[in-house]
Amino acid sequence: MTDVAAKLAELEARIEALEGRPRPGDTAAHGSIEYRGHVDFAGEVNWTIRYSAAAVLQLSATARGEVLAALGHPVRLALVQLLLDGPCTGTEMAEAVGLTSTGQLYHHVRALSSAGIIEQHSRATYQIPPPKVVPVLVLMTAAADIAGLLSR
């Protein structure tokens, strides 16, 4: 196969993976995952994403695991829920979730920041970046669905 033909075949495979179309002999997941939202949590946010199911399986497990682990702690989830209403100071966050030391708070803030879920808004204030509001809500909804908390 020539270099051009090999590159063309590689590009076609990548496009098919992104579009979720199966290739002959391909046993990977097929189809697509889609979510969207329109919310007004301290500002209007619109979000739509559609991604190949096969391509999702190729994304970094480490990065995905870090996000899920950060959201998996009850205190961190409470902090995220608080921040969905808008930016808060560290003091407001600690009081709202019943933390008694700044060390406890910053342990949780560091995990959420490292995972890209929250960011420092100003000197002592934190927020969920607007483009991440809907994805965070989708993760929370998916977790509730898996736990059997949603009525159908």
TrEMBL record:
Family annotation (CDD domains): HTH_ARSR
Domain HTH arsR-type: 66-142
Pfam family, any one: HTH_20
Any coiled-coil regions, as ranges: none
Record's keyword terms, sorted: DNA-binding, Transcription, Transcription regulation
InterPro entries linked: ArsR-like_HTH, HTH_ArsR_DNA-bd_dom, HTH_MetalResp_TranReg, WH-like_DNA-bd_sf, WH_DNA-bd_sf
GO molecular function terms noted in the UniProt entry: DNA binding; DNA-binding transcription factor activity
Entry superkingdom: Bacteria
Matches recorded under PANTHER family: ARSENICAL RESISTANCE OPERON REPRESSOR (PTHR33154:SF18), TRANSCRIPTIONAL REGULATOR, ARSR FAMILY (PTHR33154)
Listed name of the protein: Transcriptional regulator
Organism: Nocardia jinanensis
